[in-house]
């Protein structure tokens, strides 16, 4: 029996994901008769029906679901193989995947990328926006090589080291009358903007208020520090975030105050212990450590 090919698997996945042959035809830039032929060849080779057609569209049979699960893995392996050969052709040693919050990527990864481009131009970095919880799961699932996380939870198989510390300050609308140092007692009476529940910064903020005897109800919660600052500048509320010396165009709408008692946000570098000594991971890990120490 001739084996099915990658194009046929891509066609099957596209038809199921998009719900129709016509949509798959448009997405894959293939004529609809070609789409039908790919599906017919697959079913012929496997001697089983893979799809059910109805007025509501196309759905996989049980056999189709089984094949699609494996097809996604096969195509992912093929894509990685193609990328590895392309990297070799272009003189790249490899690709290293790093996950971090949007704020950390915006403020601190440019320094890492600049250092890497000077010292190791043969390594390419892929960045993913993550939370601490999703980053740890992605490390264990080999979807990330390194992650910058906001909590130092020790987990078997992961190495977690302190990367940097940043003071936390209160961001307040410019037209508010505020004390020189902002306390939990004063701030809990104001409309508050926080990171989303589940983030390390959200829990740290809640603990800071709780230690002063207050339970807060945020007016809004977002996992995007820049968006929170924009809302502060618009007068929507106050936020506790890492200090940022460059507020750009929103600077005139914000005033920044120290909080009392003082707080710092710790960021940790996490990676799989078993993989940290292999290239190109070792080089990237060394650069990440250097950039963290130099900016702490």
UniProtKB/TrEMBL annotation:
It comes from the Bacteria. Residues 4-61 form the HTH lysR-type domain. Pfam families: HTH_1, LysR_substrate. GO terms for molecular function: DNA binding; DNA-binding transcription factor activity. Gene3D superfamilies: 3.40.190.290, Winged helix-like DNA-binding domain superfamily/Winged helix DNA-binding domain. One of its GO terms (cellular component) is cytosol. The keyword Ribosomal protein does not apply. Keywords: DNA-binding, Transcription, Transcription regulation. Belongs to the LysR transcriptional regulatory family. This is LysR family transcriptional regulator. It comes from Paraburkholderia terrae.
